[in-house]
Design brief:
The structure is a homodimer of 210-residue chains. The first copy, chain A, has 210 residues and is an all-alpha fold. The first copy, chain A, contains ten helices and no strands. In chain A, α6 runs antiparallel to α8, α6 packs antiparallel against α10 and α8 crosses α9. Chains A and B meet through α7, α8, α9 and α10 of A and α7, α8, α9 and α10 of B. The structure holds a DNA duplex (30 and 30 nucleotides).
Chain lengths: 210, 210
DNA sequence: ACAAACTGACTGATCGATCGTTTTTTATTA
DNA sequence: TAATAAAAAACGATCGATCAGTCAGTTTGT
């Protein structure tokens, strides 16, 4: 007979994950000891190992950030209109995520995950898959924009997607290092970047959808 | 009386640094043991500690990448002409650095350094100072371009600099993760981004230099 | 009363760093 | 030129500390 309910069990799990997130955000994966996580969680060593098989298990559980993907997915729903407006919407979503004080720990752990991805195959898969979704979304938007003659056709949609993603990755770094980045001004610059992809002449050639 | 010359001494130092670079690139700072570096260097534990006080000393020595700064400085000399052409030149320099196979280890160590910068003040200072120089260079170019009416005045020069730097930071990540990034296509997209900063109308208003 | 949840002292392994010893090189002497 | 003394350089066995992970025993809720 289980002593605690599934809800309680999940709550304990989250309790440990939150402690681990805070510790990893402060000191990175490999400079954080299990003792730190244990102390912060308020539980004991044994209890933690009831919920996670190993420290690597915890790392992998935190390397995967589903919340952000869901936020992106929501913006997909809105992005069914003008492709370029879709790109702007996407930028807005990420800008908000970037400036949310509550997400500081997640961003820091994310950076540690980027480094860990260089040596841990499972973490790398998590990280790469994590950017695959927004990348595919941007590619779809751009290709639609190019098809409709709104976006320059001489640039690869894939290239545009990677540039936009790179911009946000770089901002996460610069922000987390504590540099005083004027996010608002930078987002304005990114908006100009996106407008730069727009065809200068309206390019009346607009083929019918297949 | 010294047994070995300064040249030999520096050579040994480099020998250790190269071993450490290779090890750190493979496994990160904290997953690399001194024993790994010792073995790779072909020396002994004691010998390594004759040249570096501690493992952290090695980390800090490698977190600072002067070579790249020098390359940027060289491109400064060329950038005395058209500001926008200066930006393109800068992109070319970084694109070359990004695709140089010999620089793979340095790029990977760089990423580990980005994560380490979150918890090690000295490493953070190295990293931040490392991007301060190209940032100042871009700001100078953009402000000159804006002054001459070549670059849109409604974007902050600082913001443009941070966007361009972020792009390259992101590309280093995506490249090192092993994703098949078409660097050439991406650089073409970046070129479009830069052109997007250009004033659409030539903006004849050109004030004389103060 | 019973079984699951939890505890925390404990373990073997591994870490960065040390230091007494050995090797190597150079300046000096024979 | 060959032998020698002296000192720096290099070595590597070894240290205490710390690590992730375990398990026999205790508590807790049903």
């Amino acid at each position: 007979m289980p002593k605690i309910s599934d809800k309680q069990r999940e709550s304990r799990r989250q309790q440990i994950l939150e402690a681990a997130l805070a510790c990893f955000a402060e000191d990175g994966f490999h400079q954080t000891g299990m003792a730190d996580i244990v102390k912060r969680s308020g539980l004991s060593h044994g209890a933690v190992y009831l919920y996670f098989q190993s420290k690597d298990d915890l790392i992998e559980a935190l390397a995967d950030d589903r919340h952000r993907r869901e936020a992106v997915l929501n913006s997909v729903a809105q992005g069914s209109g003008d492709p370029i407006e879709g790109l702007h919407a996407l930028v807005r979503v990420y800008a908000q995520w970037l400036t949310d004080p509550a997400g500081e720990a997640r961003r820091r752990v994310g950076i540690h995950g980027w480094a860990e991805a260089l040596r841990n195959r499972r973490v790398r898969n998590s990280v790469v898959e994590g950017i695959d979704m927004p990348r595919a979304l941007i590619v779809a938007l751009v290709e639609r924009g190019q098809h409709d003659g709104l976006i320059k056709r001489d640039i690869g949609a894939e290239a545009i997607a990677r540039v936009l993603i790179a911009i946000f990755q770089g901002f996460v770094l610069q922000k987390c290092w504590g540099e005083d980045v004027d996010i608002e001004a930078c987002m304005a610059a990114v908006a100009v970047v996106i407008e730069g992809f727009r065809t200068t002449k309206p390019d009346v050639r607009r083929r019918a959808r297949t």
